[in-house]
TrEMBL record:
InterPro entries: PP2C-like_domain (IPR053287), PPM-type-like_dom_sf (IPR036457), PPM-type_phosphatase-like_dom (IPR001932). Residues 68-355 form the PPM-type phosphatase domain. It comes from the Eukaryota. Pfam families: PP2C_2 (PF13672). This is PPM-type phosphatase domain-containing protein. PANTHER family: PP2C-LIKE DOMAIN-CONTAINING PROTEIN CG9801 (PTHR21586:SF0), TIPA (PTHR21586). It comes from Entamoeba invadens IP1.
Length: 374
């Protein structure tokens, strides 16, 4: 009897949790139309999932299909890299005509945010890979994405309970995107993008680089710690759903999609890098789009990722040097009173993937290069 009652209560709480997520996305969900899409093959042709990278940070790529890197710009102090472990997570499934991928950024430092990001990302991708088989149109896919992010939220607590870690439960931002083929004859595609928090997604082609959704750039340096939304344990085991996005965007064959955590995006922000403080939000977004676009013009995706990584390392060098040199009351006054260093220290992850048709004969050989020690 007690077991039945517990099951009923669990179902009640799950239903309440799903409603909370659906209500948060309702305004944007209602705008999405029931457009049919070409079903992908059941089994993906290639899968990629990020790993643990320290102290060597790889640049992982597969021909012109995709490229990825994840690294930490935090300094080494007394021989130890602060800020470890990296709490970012990325997973991607490449089907014959479909892309499912997810970017998570654990909020804070330590094992709890890392575990939250990994659990949420793996659950969201698994949920979408299961549900895409039964979806027949874009609106149903959007519905599945909301369920996936709700499942991802729940998975953080389930994983903590299984590992007896319920005292310290982390939280994470989450960005999930599904790219679907609309018409087989014309190679038209649609991208559904769901975002909670401050990770970003950009669409790049020969004519422009644009964010998939309008976002609020940092108001000031003090705003850097604001994740702008998260799932998991934000307050009393509840998510922060004040800033959510669900967007439909048509994309073309050959376009490149870039997803990144805020460790990448914030170091393109004109105020964070000390370029300009008088821009409004839209001007800041356009500035960031323009700067990122310059790096996406490289001949290969791997070269673009490497160039972005090198830029981030350089942009954060002043902040890293400042943190590497602890100040004491005995430090000279000129060192104690100084302007705040430009750049942001963070876990930094970026992935590029090409919109294209794939076939079983495609070769997904993995190439790896490495950043020097940061």
């Amino acid at each position: 009897m007690f077991g039945d009652q517990a099951q009923k209560e669990a179902k009640k709480q799950t239903k309440k949790m799903y409603k909370m997520f659906y209500d948060s996305f309702d305004a944007e969900y209602t705008k999405i139309q029931c457009i049919s899409f070409v079903k992908p093959d059941i089994t993906p042709l290639h899968a990629f999932s990020s790993g643990e990278y320290d102290p060597i940070y790889p640049i992982i790529s597969s021909a012109q299909h995709y490229a990825f890197t994840s690294f930490s710009t935090y300094p080494i102090v007394n021989g130890k890299k602060i800020g470890n472990p990296i709490a970012d997570f990325y997973e991607m499934l490449l089907y014959n005509n479909t892309i499912i991928h997810c970017m998570c950024d654990g909020c804070g430092i330590g094992s709890a945010p890392k575990k939250a990001a990994w659990s949420a990302g793996q659950t969201a991708v698994s949920s979408l890979a299961r549900d895409i088989r039964t979806c027949s149109n874009i609106k149903e896919m959007a519905d599945a994405m909301i369920r996936a992010v709700a499942d991802a939220h729940e998975s953080i607590f389930t994983a903590a309970e299984l590992n007896n870690e319920t005292v310290l439960i982390g939280s994470t931002t989450i960005l999930i995107q599904v790219v679907l083929q609309l018409e087989a004859a014309e190679k038209r595609y649609a991208a559904l993008t769901l975002n909670i928090g401050d990770s970003r997604a950009y669409l790049h082609n020969t004519s422009s680089t644009k964010s998939f959704f309008n976002f609020e750039a940092r108001k000031c340096m003090e705003d850097l710690a604001n994740s702008q939304g998260r799932i998991g344990n934000f307050t009393n085991n509840q998510p922060d759903l004040r800033n959510v996005t669900l967007m439909y965007t048509e994309v073309q064959d050959g376009d490149v999609i870039m997803t990144c955590t805020d460790g990448i995006n914030d170091n393109f922000d004109p105020e964070i890098i000390g370029v300009e403080k008088t821009m409004d939000q839209m001007q800041k977004q356009q500035f960031i789009e323009q700067q990122i676009g310059q790096y996406l013009q490289h001949a290969s995706l791997a070269e673009a990722v490497e160039a972005i990584g090198e830029y981030i390392v350089n942009a954060s060098s002043q902040a890293r040097e400042s943190k590497s040199r602890p100040q004491t009351p005995q430090s000279p006054p000129s060192l104690l009173v100084c302007t705040k260093p430009v750049g942001k220290l963070d876990h930094s992850t970026v992935a590029l993937v090409r919109v294209e048709l794939r076939n079983p004969d495609d070769l997904f050989f993995i190439d790896s290069n490495y950043f020097p020690n940061i």
